[in-house]
Amino acid sequence: MSASDKEVTPPAPRRAAKASGGDTKYARKQQAIIAAASEILNRDGVKGMTLANVASRVGLITTSVTYYFRKKEDLAVACFLDAIARVDALVEAAAQEPDPPARVQRLLYLWLQLRYRVVTGDEPPVALFGDMRTLQKPQRTIVGDAYRRFFAKLCALFESPEFGWMTPTLRAARAHILSEQILWGVIWLRRYDPDDFVRVHTRMCDILLHGFAGAGRTWRNVPVALDEMLPEAQQSAAQETFLIAATRLINERGYRGASVEKISERLNVTKGSFYYHHDAKDDLVVACFKRSFDTMRQIQRTVLTRSDDHWEQLTTLAAALFAYQISERGPLLRTSALVALPLSMRQEMIEAYGQVSNRFAGVIADGITAGSIRAVDPMIGAQMFSATLNASAEYRWWVPGATSEQTHELYAKPMLVGLFAE
């Protein structure tokens, strides 16, 4: 049965999920450890999780946890594999629907049900995928292979004779957009009461299936000149180069994987040069976030003064920001890096991100009033727009064969006019 709006009802209370691997004492304790570790991972990242704090959470001593997981990295792998398996099961269930639009709706319905059960305590936490990139080999390879198998199933949701025009490249880009909505959705859903997840499902599906374009508005690939929008960097050329390299490495490897040594190595400078510019690594991450936010604000400011047409503003914002992601000055720092920051720094960066996102919501809301943008939820729309922007920086890994010139068509177009618009 399709997950249409009329059949989506608040999920009934669920029993706690059974431990995987059988209902044995060993399996139950192992699953309790994974659940506790996943909660800590989501709050503190791989960097902040220790066997000691996991042991404390489940009433064990540290050496007892090593009976189940020899190292912290092994436990992190177990958390990520558990998360992938649980979302993978949702994709397999959604694949039973008769056509791609129904599969997308069903997947979001099942995912929001899962989030409901997690938030209400009826199911253990699900580790956030964003911190997977912080793992080193061989753990990174194990988790990466599992995630790629999951992603292949996600791509298959878009296969159908009815959408024969959708090439493997187009399917992969749409699957990437969908996966990023799930990744980032976990963060912004915290603003909503679980009982509102039904409404969230309806509004997310409406945007994914139909986009933002108002009556008579169509997609067009807007040409932009980034140099005209962005002034010269305020910091020195050396500092700018350092921030670009750090942003790229953090996006690729996460906070933990982007060591001072690797950043310095990539730029062929000494570690001393790093500490000349930054007192600590946390300061560097904050500097990268501030640079990204400043870039987004400047592009927003420039675009919004050039036109009073809100649909044109939205399409131009997309064109400029997506172009920046693949430019020599890009990309923007991924929001997944937030989890690595100390709580005091993290809150400041989340608030700064919220201000940037609210401006997207303002454009959407004003466009709805003027009639150039469809009547959608502006706040949810802004978050989904941002998630797609986040995804576009990684097109090389998830959309094989795509070129940088195609990213606007591959990401901005389906987000703005709908996943199934040809």
From TrEMBL:
Region Disordered, residue ranges: 1-24
InterPro entries on file: Homeodomain-like_sf, HTH-type_TetR-like_transc_reg, HTH_TetR, Tet_transcr_reg_TetR-rel_C_sf
Record carries keyword Transferase: no
Domain HTH tetR-type: start-end pairs: 27-87, 236-296
UniProt keyword list: DNA-binding, Transcription, Transcription regulation
Domain of life from the UniProt record: Bacteria
DNA-binding region per UniProt: 50-69, 259-278
Descriptive protein name: TetR/AcrR family transcriptional regulator
Organism: Steroidobacter flavus
